[in-house]
Design brief:
By secondary structure, the protein is an alpha/beta fold. The chain is built from 14 helices and 31 strands. A hairpin with a 2-residue loop joins strand 15 and strand 16.
């Protein structure tokens, strides 16, 4: 499969969007691309959007050369294939640039020109052989597994240098390998491969060794991913698309994280002139981006750096926020509680701030059968007013009765002033600059031509002209009025850099309204675009027409990953059997409900590489008990149903 030569110098910041409002925030804050759910079949079932809303996103995004990726990355049933194809046609009409896909059947669909297919992380492309298989299918970009290290990414890039690599740079981490995590489906009937993950990994659970409990808590809950300090390494390894996780997050989270990563990319590019951003249009941010002030579970780079000990945060999957101090005293004052706090660092409190603390469970519940009654919880309250505050202490008032012990550590997970700055009008603006040339030239006799030529910062050009008859009785437009008319922007997303006037301006006997209409026409032609890809880089593999069928790099594929007859047939055409056999190797894969790079034995016991024993471990979660099996050679933990 031959691809068009891809521009390796363009770096893409790919931001999440739950809806149009979030997408707009991402675009204005500097995204080079956004990914958003369509009407159905996206890996976040609670983040769907109507076609007309997708079209609105495309219209805005394409003003800045921003690509719109739409998720169609769930496994499909036979009865859904027709609707999936219809949705693809509708999305094409809306102007999308990319489909992110998982189900193999999609590669037999009719993909309209101008749309690329990207392989979702749900495809679990974890080997070079799989990468080459998807390259042969025509995929132009692959979403890498979160657990990849620098060396693994580099290996992929060197094996298939024409396939763009997309890596998660910020946001929540799945502890399980994406695409082969079945624990939600097994326990709750909600499949992660169908967009309905119940986030079992965030629940409290128990770890046992030979029947004895050795740990309790949110044992599989990981910190959030943050590779923003590793941009240079990621680029060196071959990554060109940097993805922020968070398609269920609100617009302020999207705006803040996008602005933060955008500034990091710009800083890298300022030191590495061989690279540039994939989109255009300057973003101006009136707030100071701070990823510590919006939802996070603490940050880690542990998967990329292969530091497993830096991954978990078993205390809570909720957002605690940064530590701001301790409780000195609490007393009731009418309908409020008055708290005296000692402050640490340079934190300043404001009315409306949200504070949190960790509430330990009642010691009498230590042996409770319900594990949720045995783990600490995160509680919180809002500041109603502040009586006094200096660098060391603050006296704040809270509605209702609040019982807190002296010495309780207090955190801040809602910064009212920061959220206000994110919500402010024009907190983020973005505009494409352009230059306009105006010329009046003689055509023949008394006929002249007004020519408007516009070139924007990305070198998009447009020309429009209007013939008119010179008639001095109509009056000549003065240069001052002409400049005033031509200096009007198309809208808030455009920025005029300058106007050049040339030719026989003293012959311009036209109505100003005609000049204004021509100005709007040429600006629309230059600045508004149907889609970013003029022609698709995606060239589909034709299964029926190929004399040499593709070879899928595994002899067998888990039947849980093949839900329709078309995908089954394609796997079989590629020499792969759908369904695992009853033997030791297959049984491990067949009975695994989760596969993880993070290992509970390494965290709470002793790894076999340090001489520890790895047998006898079980995990209790949501009323079920699972065996823990380990593949120490490849450093994977399997959670296996009994």
């Amino acid at each position: 499969m031959q691809h068009s030569q891809l521009n390796r110098t363009k770096l893409e910041l790919l931001a999440p969007a739950k809806d149009f409002i979030s997408a707009r925030n991402a675009i204005l804050c500097g995204a080079d691309a956004v990914f958003i759910g369509g009407p159905a079949f996206g890996a976040r079932a609670d983040a769907t959007n109507k076609i007309e809303d997708i079209k609105k996103v495309c219209t805005l995004a394409h003003r800045f050369g921003v690509k719109v990726h739409v998720t169609l990355n769930t496994l499909l049933y036979d009865e859904e294939l027709k609707r999936a194809q219809e949705i693809i046609y509708e999305l094409a009409d809306a102007g999308i640039d990319v489909l992110i896909v998982q189900d193999l059947s999609v590669f037999s669909f009719d993909i309209p020109k101008g749309i690329e297919l990207h392989a979702s992380t749900q495809c679990c492309i974890d080997t070079v052989e799989k990468l080459k298989f998807y390259e042969s299918l025509g995929v132009t970009q692959v979403v890498l597994p979160r657990e990849f290290t620098y060396d693994k990414i580099r290996e992929f890039h060197e094996a298939c240098p024409k396939v763009r690599l997309e890596a998660f740079i910020l946001g929540a981490l799945c502890v399980g390998v994406s695409g082969i995590c079945h624990i939600s489906d097994y326990l709750k009937g909600r499949s992660a491969n169908r967009g309905s993950c119940a986030q079992i990994c965030r629940l409290p659970m128990q770890l046992f060794h030979n029947g004895k409990e050795i740990a309790v808590g949110h044992l599989l809950s990981l910190k959030d991913n943050n590779l923003s300090d590793h941009i240079a390494e990621l680029v060196s390894a071959g990554v060109t698309s940097f993805k922020i996780e968070g398609r269920l997050k609100d617009k302020n989270y999207v705006g803040n994280t996008t602005a933060y990563v955008s500034s990091k990319l710009d800083s890298f590019i300022s030191d590495h002139q061989d690279y540039k951003r994939a989109s255009y249009g300057k973003s101006s941010i009136s707030f100071k981006a701070d990823i510590n002030k919006t939802f996070n579970r603490g940050f880690t780079d542990g998967l990329f750096t292969d530091n497993k000990k830096a991954l978990p945060f078993a205390l809570t999957p909720k957002f605690l926020g940064p530590k701001i101090g301790k409780v000195i005293s609490v007393k009731r004052k009418g309908k409020e509680s008055e708290l005296v706090l000692s402050l640490s660092g340079k934190y300043r409190l404001n009315k409306g701030d949200g504070l949190t603390y960790i509430k330990e469970q009642n010691p009498s519940r230590t042996n409770s059968v319900n594990v949720s009654e045995r783990v600490p919880t995160v509680e919180g309250f809002r500041i109603n007013s502040i009586t006094e505050q200096d660098n060391k202490t603050a006296v704040v008032n809270v509605f209702g009765s609040l019982m807190l012990k002296s010495g309780t550590i207090v955190y801040k997970n809602y910064d009212a002033e920061f959220e206000k700055s994110l919500d402010a009008k024009n907190s983020a603006v973005r505009a494409v600059s352009y230059k306009l040339e105006c010329r009046v030239q003689h055509k023949e006799g008394s006929i002249y031509t007004l020519i408007l030529n516009v070139t924007d910062e990305s070198m998009n050009c447009a020309v429009e002209s209007l013939d008119f008859e010179f008639n001095p009785e109509l009056g000549i437009i003065s240069e001052e009025k002409l400049l005033s008319t031509l200096s009007k922007r198309l809208d808030e997303y455009s920025l005029l850099e300058g106007v050049t006037l040339e030719g026989e301006l003293d012959k311009l006997s036209l109505r100003l309204s005609a000049v204004n209409e021509l100005r709007r026409k040429v600006l629309s032609k230059c600045l508004e675009h149907d889609r970013v890809n003029s022609e698709s880089l995606f060239i589909p593999f034709k299964f029926e027409q190929s004399s040499e069928p593709l070879k899928y790099p595994k002899e067998k594929v888990d039947s849980r990953l093949v839900l329709n007859s078309v995908a089954k047939r394609l796997y079989e055409v590629c020499g792969t059997k759908v369904g695992l056999e009853d033997n030791a190797a297959d049984n491990l894969e067949k009975n695994s409900v989760m596969v993880c790079k993070f290992c509970l034995i390494n965290e709470y016991g002793t790894c076999s590489k340090q001489g520890g024993k790895v047998s006898g471990y079980t995990l209790g979660v949501s009323g079920k008990t699972f065996k823990i099996k380990v593949d120490c050679k490849n450093c994977f933990m399997h959670i296996v149903k009994e």
